[in-house]
Amino acid sequence: MLHNGFVIGRRRFLAASAALPLAARSIARAEASPQGLRLTYKVASPPKLPPPLELSPGARLEVEFEGSGSGARCSLGLQVLLDGKPHLLPLAIWTEDPQAYWRMREALHVPALRGVVRGADGAWTLAVSGQDEFSARIMSSAAEEESSAEDRPWLSYRHQLSPGWAEGPLGDQPVELWRLPATGAAAAAQIEPAETSGKLGGWLARLGASGPISSHGVPGRSERGQEFVRHVAASDFEPFALRNYPRGTLGLPEIDTQFSGAADLEAYRSQSRVRLAGLLIVSVDCVANPHVVERLIPAPCVADPNALVRVMTIRGLSDPALDEAWLLARCGIDGQRAWYAISHFKASLAGSEFGREAWGYPTQDGAARALLGANRFTSSVMRRDQSLYRADGSYGGFSTGTSLNEMLVVTLRPKLGAGAEPRRGELLLQPWYYQGLRKPLNRQSLYASFSAPADNDAVNPWNRMGPVDAYWADIYDDADLQRLPAARAGEVTDIAPYYRDRCDGRLPWEPPPAGAQERASD
């Protein structure tokens, strides 16, 4: 699901929802540290807020560090009013915990981003993609005094982008406003303003905030539930629908996705395609075990009787950020032949997961590799230092010109519905086209293998495939891949058996196993 893009502090996300009975009792695997840091800024350039919110008097921004180890996080929120009462609207939150990340985005619908947060001896740092993004250090603790740090409720908008972007970001999709209630005021220590440096994702400059006006040491936050507030008109919310997606992460780099204006929304609608250029594409089709494939494909899709699966590895010839791997299975839907997307790996994930939430791509962290030699090709897929798949073969002769191939790809995403966990899902059908210099395949040399023996209980579907027979391969050099707008093609009654794989075995709205927090904090 494409989510609103606002971020929430740990105290807000640690939520077991009354409306979502299986929602998080905790979204982190590590307990919050007893003392975090909250910085408050004046905002000189506040945004026009989505309804029904109003800006608090004085326009203030809060940055908060808390937690420890992989459970540490940095959150940024804007002080707002809802029905005249103070709340906090999250704008961004950074965490390195993958389970907390999925939970925040897909269960709590807050704008989680990948980042590493560390705190020690009064100093906190946020690093994104290996680069320092923001740091804060308490200058002195001599001026500490006990005060009340107001713990405001946090707000979250739930929405999904329309899979056919020509309809606009939202189309006719509903928008829901949810609240994570506060647990009351908490004792805190007011300290001297902290020394800070960094961009904080560009938010401070965008909102005209320079230098914190106050600093507090804050305690760890307790858990809380979510409550549905009201529906919001999609047309009123539209300028904010893309705000959680940094420029370019939807494959539409011309769009400024932060608080979009009329020109940005029109540019978004006018895009005819998502285009990736300068690629090496190695696509290998294999005959697999029909019993394995049938279990991976949700109805109303119908598995191909020949149990044909396709592994497509893509290499960015000049941009490694384009490297990715797909595991797909041939199926039929609505009278058309298509490929159901079982798994998708990328080595570097962005806020939008390159379509995971908009188009239902089953994206996870992983590594894909495709190489061409003088007359041979190889492709491989790895995750967490484990080899999952390998293929190779030879080709001969020369490409006779640019060749074009096409495929219909079926993806699955949860379906929003107030007051219930998203057991229902919808299938999306998206046309893909790829073209480039096609290498003539020597079919007799083709080899492909999934590394692990078949294991029906494996969390990762790559480890369930078992032996396969390589059937055909397409090798495209210097290629383009174009993806067109998607359309809804059907509904799935219960997404859990098919959606669990992409979340490493635990759905985002399920609580962690008993004792997981204690083990993580040991």
Domain module count: 2
How far is the first residue's CA from the last residue's CA? 34 Å
Structural class of the helices, strands and pairings?
mainly beta
Whole-angstrom Rg:
24 Å
**Beta-strand segment tally:** 30
Supply the CATH architecture of the largest domain: Beta Barrel
How is the CATH topology of the largest domain named?
A: Acetoacetate decarboxylase-like
Mean pLDDT: 81
CATH superfamily descriptor of the largest domain: Acetoacetate decarboxylase-like
Low-confidence stretches: 1-34, 517-522
- Which CATH class of the largest domain is shown? Mainly Beta
**What amount of the residues lies in strands?**
35-45%
Polypeptide structure, described:
It is built from nine helices and 30 strands. With 522 residues, the chain is mainly beta. It has two domains: 231 residues, Beta Barrel (Acetoacetate decarboxylase-like), CATH 2.40.400.10; 231 residues, Acetoacetate decarboxylase-like, CATH 2.40.400.10. Strands 1, 2, 3, 4, 5, 6, 10, 13 and 15 form a nine-stranded mixed sheet that branches. The protein has a seven-stranded mixed beta barrel with strand order 17-19-20-21-26-27-29. A hairpin with a 6-residue loop joins strand 3 and strand 4. The longest helix has 9 residues. The protein is elongated, with a radius of gyration of 24 Å. The N terminus and C terminus are likely disordered.
